[in-house]
Each structure stands twice: as C-alpha cells, then as structure tokens.
Queue: 2 jobs
Job 1
Amino acid sequence: MKRVSILGATGSIGQNTIDLIRRDRTGFEVVALTGGRNVDLLAKSAIELGAKHAAIAEDSLYQDLKDALAGSGIGVSAGRSAILQAAAMPSDWVMSSIVGAAGLEPGLTAMSNGADLALANKESMVAAGRLMKATAAENNVQILPIDSEHSAIFQALMGQSRSSVERIIITASGGAFKNWSKAELATVTPEQAMVHPNWSMGSRITIDSASMFNKGLEVIETKEFFEIDATQIEVVIHPQSIVHALVGFHDGNLLAHVGPPDMRHAIGFALYYPERKPLPLNRLDLTKIGQLDFAKPDQIRFPALKLAYDVLELGGVAGAVYNASKEVALDAFMARQIGFLNMAEVVERTLHRLFARACELNKDQNLDNILHADHMGRKIGREEIQALSA
Ligand code: NAD
Ligand code: MG
C-alpha cells in the first residue's frame, strides 16, 4: 500500500486527489491531510479516508478541529509548524497543493523526509526551482508535475532524450477576457475574474488565469522543471483547453498531449506513476470538440507573460519576487483596492525597483535568500499598491 499525504486537502486539487483515492481505497494508506481554514471539510475528508492525522494552518481553529474529530482516533494539530510536521510524517507520496508561496517549505520538508512530491504548487518551482530539484536529488525522490501543461510535457518526454528537444509549447485558454480591450480590462471585477471558461479551480488560480499571471508562472515553471532555455518556451492561446502542451524535437516532429480539462488525469498519472492504472474518468470525444483553435498571445493587453520572460532573464531569485509581488497584488485586487490591470503594474514596478540597479538581493538559491526575496517582493509590492490606490 502506498502511504500518501495531501497538503492543501481542502482545496480544488486536494479534493480531486481525494476523489481518486476514494475510488481505490485498498491502494492507499492515508497518513496526513492538511487544510488552511475549512475545518468541516478537513474533518470530513480525514474521517472518510481514515487518515492518521489532520492539521489546520489557522492556529485559532485547533479546538474546532479537535471537536470535529473527537472519538475518531485521528491526530489533530494546528498552526504553521503543524503543517510542516504533517509534511514530515513518513509517506511515500505527498501531494503539494497548498496555494501560493506558503507551499514551498511544506514541499521541501516532504521531500527531505523521503516522499516523492506531486507538485501542483507551481509557486514553489517558480520561487525556488533549483532548490526544489536539488532537494529531490539529495533525498533520491521525484518531483512529479501536476499542472496539466507540465504533466503533458513530462509524459511527452518519456523515453525521449532531453538533448533532442528543440522547443516546448504550452497552451493557455486565454481566460475569461481573452478578447477584451485594454479599456474593458480596466473595469474587470473580482467576481468576473473568478469564473473560468473551461476549468473548475481555486479562486486565486482562476484570477491568475484571467490575468495570464498563471501562464507567466507556468513559463517559469517549465524552465525550472525541464531545464531548457527561455527562448525554447512558447505560449499559444488555445481556447478549448484540449491540447495541454507540445514538445518539438530537433527533427521537426512535435508530440502533443491531448485530454479533457479535468485535473484528475494529471493527478491520477502522478498517483500511480510509473504505472498507468485505469482511471474511471470521462474519455475525450474529439468529434464532439469538432474544432481546435490556436492564436498568438497579446503581451500588450496581458503583460504578465512578458514579465515572466524578464524574470527568466534576470534569473537568481527573481521568480520569488515575481510570485510574491503577484500574490500581494492579487490580494489587493480581490479586496478591490486596485484594478485588474494594476496587478501587472505592481509586479513590474517591484521587479524594476529590486533589479534595475545592482541587485541587492543575494542570487544564490538557498532557502534564506528565497524567503528574503519573497519578503522583499511583498514589501515593495505593498508600497506600490499603496501608491496606486492613493
Ligand atoms: P485552492 O484555493 O482551492 O486550495 C488551496 C489549499 O491550500 C486549500 O486546502 C487551503 O486551505 C490551503 N491553504 C491556503 N493557504 C494556506 C496556508 N497559508 N497554509 C496552509 N494551507 C493553506 O487552490 P487550488 O486550485 O487547489 O490550487 C492549489 C495549487 O495547485 C496552486 O498552487 C495552484 O496554482 C495549483 N494548480 C491548481 C490547478 C487547479 O485545477 N485547481 C491546476 C494546476 C495547478
Ligand atoms: Mg496549468
């Protein structure tokens, strides 16, 4: 039996993972589940899966979780350190599906304690790609991508030599506002941005999809995961979200990964890797899809993508700054403090202030430097938010 834990079990990816485990109860022993604030769902999931332990990030919710699990025999803890302790519990496979940079240390902890890491938390790869990969190598564990594009690339690369890769193309749905003018984009509300045309996901990644920050993060994630040059990574708008990514080889052949927009395909692939087990999910009917469209992304209306390529050029800890300033800008947009287009302005100004002159940030990717870069990205980002909302 595979021992599994899920960090971020109450979120969209966490619940999709639970849905697959629920259909194969004899295949898995559930060690730890963690959540941010949703006590009811965490307790319900822990009882259903017979987890050994449940941890909630919010300290003040300890008693609520304890009450909800009274008599179940399931261990209970709360607070940031409880999440790290849950990540350290002996598991073979850990799903990293906390949203944001808050997922970095739990993911590192899981790998340091010998677990393969199923990585939905793209932010940790963006902020600390080299550290993540070095930690995996030191502990002789694997990082398995969960992001649909990166799972697609990983699968297309199986059995291929990395040196034969010429380019990688990731697709983007274009989000909810792909045809909106810049003037219209300036009026977008959080409610409008929280609806995705194809995928059902957490609210933060859904807004990131609308602003194209999600694709920016994924460009950086592609570079870190597959160690190819920024010039070899392309983004194509593909509104149907059926082709997730393509790998092009030096001989001109191109392998595309195709599937319905359901994250359980990527999660299931990683859950059983290196085996392929039958998954009870809907199959794609291409005749129902009929048509697949592709277009060039507009980097003027969606500058988040161009900023990601700037980050790749800057290197070092620039990814941590990009992500951290994006996180505070997203908070400010959701709180209606700044407008939709202001989010990219905040990130651009933050990167400019921290990297325009001699960069004061230490570029070496160790945890202290990354956490400091994250801290500075948030601090300068908040100053820029203040300036924009004054
Ligand atoms: P979500 O908001 O639905 O869930 C996030 C989870 O993290 C929840 O369990 C929440 O309680 C927990 N959490 C939030 N803040 C926390 C904190 N500070 N400490 C501990 N736990 C905390 O998000 P999601 O859509 O499931 O996305 C999770 C991750 O997967 C993100 O990194 C996202 O970019 C990535 N991802 C999601 C999808 C998708 O389809 N949802 C697809 C690709 C990648
Ligand atoms: Mg994706």
Job 2
Amino acid sequence: MEVLNDKYYIDTWGCQMNEEDSEKISGLLKGIGYTKTTVREEADIIIFNTCCVRENAEQKVYGHLGSLKRLKKSNPNLIIIVCGCMTQQKGMPKKIIDKFPYVDIIVGSFNSYKLPEYIDRVKKDGKSIIEIWDKEEGIVEGLPIDRKSDMKAFVTIMYGCNNFCSYCIVPYVRGRERSRKPEDIINEIKSLVSKGYKEITLLGQNVNSYGVGLETKVTFGDLLRKVNTIEGLERIRFMTSHPKDVSDDLIKAMAECEKVCEHGHFALQSGSTRILDKMNRKYTREDYITLAKKLRKAIPDVAISTDIIIGFPGETEEDFLETLSIVKEVEFDSAFTFIYSKREGTPAAKFEEQVPDEVKHDRFNRLVEAVNEIVSRKNKEYDGKVVEVLVEGTSKNDETRLTGRTKNNRLVNFTGNPDSIGKIVNVKITKAQSFSLNGEMI
Ligand code: SAH
Ligand code: SF4
Ligand code: F3S
C-alpha cells in the first residue's frame, strides 16, 4: 500500500516507554507512506498516545479529544486514533467512544504494531475499530523506528511490571514483566551506533528485574557489562530501577563500566517506612539511605534522582516530615514530585483516610521548596568546573547557544562551535544556575 502526501500528527503523554512506542508508531506510518506533521490542522491521521498514571494525564487527553470535533467536521476523512496505557483500562474504550464518537480507532498497548492494518480497514469501510488485547503474542522484534534524535536513543529492554505498588496502575495496563533477548538488544544498539548514535538509555519499569524468564539467565548487571563493550558507543543510561532490587553487583557494574553514566534514577516515593509498607514498596527508609550511601561511595560524582509521592492515603504530618528529612539527608540531584492521585482498580483507591486536597497542596509546596533548595545548592558547586557534555543542539531559549547534558545528567547551556553538535566536548562552567549550568566550550 502506497500513500502519497498524506500526513500524520502524533501527541505523546507519559513516560519514556510511551515516547519509544510513539517512535515505533511513527516508523510504521512512515513505512506505509505517511509523512509527519507538527500541525494538527493539516493532518490526515491524528494519534494520541495516552498515559493514565495520574488523573490529570487522562484529563488532558479528554480535553484534546474534545477539541478534535471541529477538525473532524471540516475534514470527514480525518482518522483519529487513541492508543497507549489509557485504553487498557477496563471500560475505558467504551467511555472514550461514548464521549467522542468521532474517534476511528482505539488500540491497546499490546497490538499497536497492527495500526497499518487497522488504518487500511477504516479507510475501506469507514467503521470504527476498537481492539484491545490483554497481552501480546510475544515480543515483536524488528519494527521500524522513527527516532526523534539522531544521537540519543531509547532502547526498551523489558516490558511490563510485576511489582504492584498499591497506588500504581502501570502493572494493570502494561502487563507482566517480559524481557527482550540480550542478542536482540545488543544488535539494536550496534545498529544504532553504526548510524552515529552516541548515547542509549535502556528502558523498563524496573530494569533490575531484567532477565527474568529468559532461557539463559542474564542479570541487568551482566547486560550493562555487555553493552559497555560495544565499540563506538559513548554513553549508557538506564531508567528506572526499583530500590528494593538494586544489587551490589549492579552498583559494581555501574562503577566498573566507563560508559555507564554516573546517574541513577531510584524512585523513593516516601521517606516513611510505615507509608512505604502501605505502598507495597518492600524497602524501608533505612534501606534507601544505605543504597544512596553505597552509590555515592562506589561512584564519585554520582547523581541520584528520584520520584516522590505526597498525600498517599493515611500519610500524616509526621510521615511527611520523614519524607522532608530524607530528601535533605540523601541530597537528591533532582526529584519529580507528585501529588497522590487515586486510580480506580488499584488497592490504594480503596484505602480509607484519603488526604484532603488542601493538605496535599500544602505538603507538595513544602516538598518542592526543600527539593529546589538542595538541587540549586548542588548545581552551584559546579561553578568554575570543567564538565563533559554531549552536544544535543541549540539552546531552546537562545539559538546562538548550544545545549547538552553532563554524564551525571545536568543540563548545560553554553557558547561554542555549532559543528560540535552530536559530539562530546569539554565545557567550563561560568555560571551555575538553580536548575541548569551555563558555560563556554573549551
Ligand atoms: N516504574 C517506575 C515508575 C513509573 S510511574 C518506578 O517504579 O520507578 C512514574 C512515577 O509516577 C512513579 O515513580 C510514582 O512516583 C508516580 N506515580 C505512580 N502512580 C501514581 C499515583 N497514583 N499518584 C501519583 N503519582 C503516581
Ligand atoms: Fe508502578 Fe511500582 Fe511498577 Fe513502578 S514498580 S511501574 S511504581 S507498580
Ligand atoms: Fe503512563 Fe503508561 Fe508510562 S501509564 S507513566 S505511559 S507506562
């Protein structure tokens, strides 16, 4: 099937895994002749790749779907597609189609690779398609991927999650853990490197459980060591890893492998052991502090980033103060802070003692203030230092400046030669700001 001059538009919400899924969907659509547009009004296909981790992620999608009514009226041939995690929730496809009857295709996370077939069907008979699977028929390898960047790439190493943290909907919408074969991962990375990619991020909801279910046992540490030997690759990152599963061997692998960036994202969620227990996180406040100490000892200059939820059901002021104090003790290099959002179908949605909104907002503000104070103080320590930066392009706010990240994931904006885009260069920090560093290439 060859389509000419037809355009698709895609919006992506949610985590890096969704970003990578969108790159795969883009690859599929380009494969059947579509070209990408960033202007909704000129698209023949509009795709919303959705997230449902918090309620506000869903609200955004509803808002955007509502605004498509007008476009569908002016262009009845427009094909509207909803995919991603939101569609995997029980009753959601019906809810979407009832509210927005002009949606043409609702496809789940496990069968989005079938989109070209569904698009073809809709074009032929004009009937809308709702097709959601509860699991996939096995990991589909070899799909075309249209990547956003030509120097950094996400490489999913495992799908799904078995942890069932009591607040979280991800295991219900992404299924159980499945690992890709190491040889498929290595071959993908080698092919990326041959195209000039410098940095890869290994993705999974909990990369530490990589290898479970594979015929030959390979741990995540083993995988890091293998990837580290790939010639031409400069940087390896990974996201995300559950603190309960960080083995000493993983820390050792991080320290040993020179390409593995000095950065780990370990979601804390709460500093109170009592709340961590209710969250089903399977580690204590002390375990987390020990982990952070081990990391800082084994890997000089390591950055530790995290996710924190405030307002989990039953969280008292005392529990919250424990979160504040662990933030100060661990001195996170960055932190994503979230207000607890009740997700139907998760155990925590039924917990009594839901925290009132005004208490949540007050705690959220106090937490953000504490985090910002630490992040900004730690950034200021970079004043005058020389750092290695992978140059990603020109700076968002100032086209005459370049931008990139250090190995430990700090954002640097600097003056330098535009020919260095795609390369790793040394930058002297001239002014450290609260959330980024300013400098000049040397
Ligand atoms: N697998 C990753 C997390 C993926 S979800 C990990 O465990 O590290 C990203 C973050 O969203 C979580 O770490 C958590 O902080 C937040 N989150 C998940 N469910 C939430 C909810 N119901 N309300 C608020 N934040 C939530
Ligand atoms: Fe959600 Fe917990 Fe799985 Fe992360 S580890 S995706 S927070 S259930
Ligand atoms: Fe959202 Fe799905 Fe990721 S719910 S956070 S897009 S796994």
